[in-house]
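thought: fold this chain, then report.
action: predict
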Amino acid sequence: MLSTSRVWLLVLLCSLAMSYGWGFRGDYGHEAGAMFPGCFLALSVLIASNRKDWLNRITPVALAGAIGWAFGGSMSYGKVIGYTAHSSVPDVVYGFACLFLIGALWGSIGAGCLGLSLTMKRSWLNQWAGPLFLLFCTLQLLDHTGTTEWLQEEYLKNWDVDWVAACSGSIVAVVCMVVPVWRSAAGLMFTLSVGWLLGFFILTYTLGIRMTPPRGDNWAGCLGLAIAFFIWLHVNRLRAVRYLFLVGLLSGGYGFAIGDGLNMMGRAGWGPIGELAKSLKLDAWKWMEQSFGLIMGFGVALGILQMLRKRIQPPDEDAPAGSIHLIGLVFLLIIMPWLNFFKNVRRLAENNQLGQPLFGMPQEFWYFLIGGLVSLVILIAILLYRRGKLLIIPSTALGKAQWLLLFLMWISVLAAFMQAMPHMNRTGTLWVHITFWITASLVTLLTVCASITTEETILDPGNSAMDPSWRMGTWMWLLIALVPFLIGILTYGTIAMHDAPLPGSHLRFEK
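observation:
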């Protein structure tokens, strides 16, 4: 049995870490921004669960969380939220239904990837080093040579979807299948890529189903990917991962829909909290983002809690740690920050907030030079760590997970704070970053206190990840049945909050 303190630690740490992470993601956007909350949630699961078998695979688990939640970052939802700000019942219903779908896709794919990293054998995780490295290099080459932009302009110009990335994934997967030790991982990569392409070409290109025209329809590709992922889990009888996939689906769907309900309350100035938000010009959009993360993190934590209570068997450690650990650390500590933090300098340039050149070189050069030097230092530190010569890293697996979570969280807090600094005269911006610091501090406190509880989760005997008992419980079926009622309540509530469409509202259906 898990102690009460362990249960509370798991639920609070996952919820708060994801809540802050999703607020950060709102500042940086897209797939790269969503990597941080996914990574935070994965590390929170490791720290709070205190399972030795899971803690022995910190890097691949954190990497899986980052990549898993990154998929949803390609989906456009700004206009969908505009539908919920209208006073037309069909449009508001449609908006909340679409938000539920987007959140469900985000949460299910992310939770599924996390589940694989916790349950699959070590040799299977090691297989991903080569395919992921080749895919990343391929995508960077296509982007930086202008090939991606050229292909999207030349073909499917009017659709604004990431079909080039999906095709690249399938091609890289086929190439990697030639290498026997990569074949299984490449097979899943191929399945997901083809699922994405089928989802887009069937739903949008052929049937003409568009969620937010003229915005992009990556949602259709993500839906195809999610269906392909679920089928792959079912065929391979990975029932525990399939269970976590469905938990993520529900928590993500409920989280996004409820979060936007709070957003509408703030924008309409409804009730004491809404009036306060309107009078102080607080950022109600952030309420949506942070509550979305809070609810999704809470839901996934409950799924992990069920896995712990049923004492899911330790994954098979049939091989030593492979190069996925090195690639994962480089990605988490260098590439993931670069993909986000360079936007700070870009936004300064866009707002004409950079000064005169220094020694004949533009200020952007010096910022990127500093970033390059810091990255080099981190790379050297990673190599020393791999050789066991970096003494500043804790010796225990729990300590390493704590260190990684707090390091990534606080550099993201500082980066977001620096990006927003020119706008701190706005009360809404200031309050957002106050909540960032408060939430990150609470996460830090919980992470530090995790060391106090020395209780270890009992591993044996337990249920296999393929055990038939991993199926949806009554509460999950109930939540599915209540989805129409949730959308109906949110629709009625938001329309009752205002007499006319709110600023920024959109119509999907002509009256």
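thought: worth noting. The mean pLDDT is 92.
final: tokens above.
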